Amino acid sequence: MSATIKFSNKNKTDFHKVVTQRVEKYFAEKGISKNADYRMVFKTIVMFSLYFIPYAFILSGTLSLASMWLSTVVMGLGLAGIGMSVMHDANHGAYSNKSWLNQVLGYSLNIVGGDAFNWKIQHNQLHHTYTNIHGFDQDIRPRMNLRLTPAVKRNWFHRFQLVYAFFLYSLQTFFWVIVKDFMQFDLYLQFYSSENNKKQKTIRLLNIVLFKAIYFFYILVIPAIVLHLAWWQLLIGFMTIHMVGGLVLTTIFQLAHIVEGTEYPEPVNGTIDAEWAIHQMQTTANFAPRNKLLTFYVGGLNYQVEHHLFQRICHVHYPAIAPIVEQTAKEYGVPYLKNETFGSAVASHVSLLRKLGLQETLHMATDF
């Protein structure tokens, strides 16, 4: 991560310029904002309700243990929904043209146990710039015995990763809440020299600790005081929230980049042999674009192609601009990767996991 990657312009096309102009024209002709509208406000209310209303019912003491557990399942869905539909847009600066509102809503990640500062470095700066590039894109780094890129050395246990992958996916937000933010704390401050001083480090660490304390107080301490549950019952509820939320969040993100057809470019002398926009098209895939319910819940993350090109446009607009992007890609001979259904996307991800576990190198098909 201390090195830099450049994107080659030797075969530069007008694709990025033209697709940007066409999308800008769409918003100008419609006379609408690129930011959130009434649909996004409604969705925000729904996602927070999915998380906090079951929490309130649990604290009411009127539910049976089985109903409490089912409520934690709903909270897990709400956790994922907040992450995909609210926090994600806000921390990209896409929710509103008011920076303070983006910052406030972006801190919804802190309220559910994460850290917005770390997330913006990992996701906005590293993942979105260096998509699927080993050593830079933190979303495909080796973790928990998973091999998510052919650039990682294959070990004997990877042949079984298809068996344990989805279980490990379910632990991702638990890992993130407990240790990930502290692991990233020093790494990211050292990587970005503007943050590398003692005072700023102290403020950052205190910020993480404070929000973790608030999170664990309301998610564990308050229920323990109000409900007088056994510690193992509290633990089951806590783990259910995170295993449901982690499984949903991680799976949805994997379906955009870790599927058959996406590429894993390796830099040569610090250079990727493609301009940035073309690189995004080669490494990103859409899925289930006609599934309106899925699109609503996952915050448009099934339109990852549009998101990677236009991350500061609110996701409620992605279905409308997708045909513009697809047509422009066709005109310029640029890949536009897409799985038509959620099931086919999962099947493609499973197939690639299996290949990454069994094969040292891959010959990636580009036909989707």
Pick out its properties:
368 residues, mainly alpha, two-stranded parallel ribbon, 3% strand, globular, disordered C terminus
Short characterization:
This protein has 368 residues and is mainly α. It has helices at residues 15-30, 38-60, 65-91, 99-106, 108-111, 116-127, 161-169, 172-191, 198-227, 231-257, 276-283, 292-297, 304-309, 318-332, 342-358, and strands spanning 6-7, 271-272, 285-287, 337-339. It is built from 15 helices and 4 strands.
Quickly count the helices.
Answer: 15
Helix content: 55-70%
Global shape:
globular
Integer average pLDDT: 92
Major sheet summary line: 2 strands, parallel
Order of strands across the main sheet: 1-2
User: What is the CA–CA distance across the termini?
Assistant: 32 Å
Overview of the structural elements:
With 368 residues, the chain is mainly α. It has one domain (6-358). 62% of the residues lie in helices and 3% in strands. The protein contains 15 helices and four strands. It has helices spanning 15-30, 38-60, 65-91, 99-106, 108-111, 116-127, 161-169, 172-191, 198-227, 231-257, 276-283, 292-297, 304-309, 318-332, 342-358; strands at 6-7, 271-272, 285-287, 337-339. The longest helix is centred in the middle third of the chain and has 30 residues, at 198-227. Mean pLDDT is 92; it is low at 364-368.
Question: What's the SSE blueprint?
Answer:
Layout: E1 6-7, H1 15-30, H2 38-60, H3 65-91, H4 99-106, H5 108-111, H6 116-127, H7 161-169, H8 172-191, H9 198-227, H10 231-257, E2 271-272, H11 276-283, E3 285-287, H12 292-297, H13 304-309, H14 318-332, E4 337-339, H15 342-358
Parallel strand pairs: 1-2, 3-4
